[in-house]
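Apologies for my clumsy wording, but are you able to produce some protein sequence, whichever is easiest, and the tokens describing how it folds?
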Amino acid sequence: MSVTIETLEKLERKVSLSLPIETIQNEVDQRLKKLAKQVKIDGFRPGKVPMNIVAQRYGYSVQYEVMNDKVGEAFAAAAQEANLRVAGAPKIVEKENADEGQFAFDAVFEIYPEVELGDLSQVEVEKFTAHVNQEAIDKTIEILKKQRRTYTQKAMDQSVAKDDRVTVDFEGKVDGEPFQGGQASDFQFIVGEGQMLKEFEDAVLGMKLGESKTFPLSFPENYHGKDVAGKVADFMVSLKKIEASHLPELNEAFVKSLGVTEATVEGLRSDIEKNLEREVKSRLLNKNKQVVLDALVKQAKLDLPKSIVQAELDRMVENARAELKQRGIKDAENAPIPEDIFRPQAEQRVRMGLVVSELVRMKDLYAKPEQIKEHIEHLASSYERPEEVMHWYLNDKRNMAEVEALVVEENVTQYVLSQLKVKEKELSFDELMGQ
């Protein structure tokens, strides 16, 4: 088959093809004969329905099906002969001036772009590092202790102190008018943990049981409640209960309550250190991966296939509608979501996907079986029964595909880092964890 490819615009191409109508009709006849042996129509025994009735009832749908199949086969063969990497589905348009006995059509489509990766050797990036220190372990132990603290009611003459749990009634007004979310009864919070705005907590500090207080509170400009963001409210708060908090002692009984295998304080610290190191490694990998991919994509030159960007836009809009539905929004599936708000993100995702795919292909950065096995073993090592986790991964295609994708990302990250000018930057544990 001789194929002529016409370039329309950048990645857009057009190919003109034709098929003998006789070939299409023969296939339609064959499928109708096969269908006649299977269909059930009132008044006829199975397999005895006359062909003219089968053709009358099913002829159009069978012809449509055959046309789609044959056109698809012809287009695929043409693309293969011309060594084209087709991006997205082609748009098929029937031609009116076809030769006698021929069905002619134009297929308009896009091809994947040539990706020019660019020179990475002169690009400088920061590679982040971080370490787990004793302070991080101590902080984690304090969090575990706070999760298991107990409370006792304070005496009438005692006042509110930091870390106390208080129960209050409150009402807030802006310009003398109540606002949504500004009132509550028997509301409980722990003073000093940031559950309430600092001005609110400061006002409650030092109060005694049964006392009431009125105070002004300034809402931040970026406050989640848009009606009061940036405004000053007058609050009245009444204190109904004060409870002092008591942290458990760090001893073997406490460690045992956490289910640590080695029920000693040293065993707990060792267990926490391993978990924190695993978390640090994961966060550093993600942080450095993003730096690397940004540098890689910034240096690359390529045109974006409109069809692939559109498919990504469609997916993002559908995800947005699904999220609205999950929130209980009525008729979420028909919500008018303008796709252009997602366009920059969609284009960046497509650009990154194409650039990374090209790099993986060029430098053979595909996941090797031994890398996948090692990654799964690492994931399984944090569980009590690693062999069960290994089995869960190895016997599920979706899980294996996710692991393979992660390994490829790590291969890409390490390769690109080896090509860049790298300047290491040490982050504290808290900086890495975003505290």
Summary: The chain has three domains: 5-111, 150-246, 255-433. The mean pLDDT is 88. The radius of gyration is 33 Å. The domain at 5-111 is CATH 3.30.70.1050 (Alpha-Beta Plaits).
